[in-house]
Amino acid sequence: MKLVEVTTPAHQRKFIEMAVKLYKDEKNWIRPLDKDIEGLFHSETNKLFRNGAKAKRWLLQDEKGQTIGRIAAFINPKMKEKQPTGGVGFFECIDSQEAAFMLFDVAKDWLKSEGMEAMDGPINFGERDKWWGLLVDGFSEPNYNMPWNFPYYQKFFEDYGFKLYFKQFTYMRPVQDVGFDAKMIKRANAVIDNPDYSFRYIKGKELQEKAPEYFMTVYNKAWARHMGKSIALKEAKLMFGKMKPIIDPRLIYFAFYKGEPVGFFIQIPEINQIFKHVNGKMDLLGKLKFLWYKTFSPPNKMLGLVFGVVPEHQSKGVESAMIISYDKMSNSPKFPYKTIEMNWIGDFNPKMMRVCEQLLAEIYKTHHTYRYLFDREKPFERHPIFD
């Protein structure tokens, strides 16, 4: 077997096509958009490179020159950990421990040479909401920008010496006729009856002109300290701009207190139900297929991306009130979405897990994020729990 560093356009194509060949007979795998993967490794499309990030990729070939594995390793300067920690991801491999360990070794050796003391994997070269974690339970079709892998990968990671850093749970519930926890309803009604609070979805001009500002305000208070970064208005506008082709105003919902935004949940149609028909290509044919399926066979599943309430309004029932008030609007036979999956919630976030349980949602999929310490004598610590 031979390792080949990805340095040419031909190598880049093989990096993408390796996964396509590996999963060609797997009915639940959905080919990601080629540009969503390849774009991560170029400075023109991934701004992390402009902030000092580094990345390398390798292919593993057999004696006949056939690609039988791949891996990427990267250093993201925005990752703030106790020890310098790099990442590995986009790992794919035939069912061979020898091959898998060769890929892990080359990634580890490069990260060590760059001064790293640990590696997390499999993770994304970017934000946590994409390509993060190893699927270990719930091998149904993946949601957009979430990984799918064969079950045998888990043994590769654990036998190599990776240890569980945190679990990621994807919760699912039907949209209609499920009900809610009785205590949740009681808390919600107390807030809904308070005239200082209001709850509504955002539509029309307000969606593009004001929603990014609402989102930035709440996110920076509710999430920035946990995620290690705040977002600027420009970034929020860019996010909403990127979502524009698929956005459904019925899925963007905010809570206000005396007219000021204090909570939100952002959902999108689960567009992998469409992208599975385009075979990874958003060329002219892919765009035509996308428009056809979006129009005539639209998704019937929602994907919850992010949920947050500012700290001063937490533990008051605002989360419950926002959900209950939304349910009254969506619990109609005309509402086109039948199920919702909440984008993964780490086991380090028990508050959000409790919210999902009060929704009577169930864990539908589980991913693992692993960590490997290069100093094998150093005590291992799991991800800290959010307070």
User: What is the succession of H and E elements?
Assistant: EHHEEEHEEHEHEHHHHEEHHEHEHE
Instruction: Give the terminus-to-terminus CA distance.
Output: 47 Å
Number of helices: 13
Catalogue the unreliable spans.
Answer: none
Structural class: alpha+beta
Q: Helical residue percent?
A: 25-40%
Protein name: N-acetyltransferase domain-containing protein
Organism: Algoriphagus marincola
InterPro entries: Acyl_CoA_acyltransferase, BcerS-like
How would you describe the overall organization of this protein?
It comes from Algoriphagus marincola. It contains 13 helices and 13 strands. Strands 1, 2, 3, 4, 5, 6, 7, 8, 9, 10, 11, 12 and 13 form a 13-stranded mixed beta sheet that branches. 33% of the residues lie in helices and 26% in strands. The model has no long low-confidence stretch (mean pLDDT 90). Strand 9 (252-257) and strand 10 form a beta hairpin. With 387 residues, the chain is of the alpha+beta class.
Quickly describe the structure:
InterPro entries: Acyl_CoA_acyltransferase, BcerS-like. The protein has 387 residues and is of the alpha+beta class.
Provide tags for this entry.
387 residues; alpha+beta; 13-stranded mixed sheet; 33% helix; globular
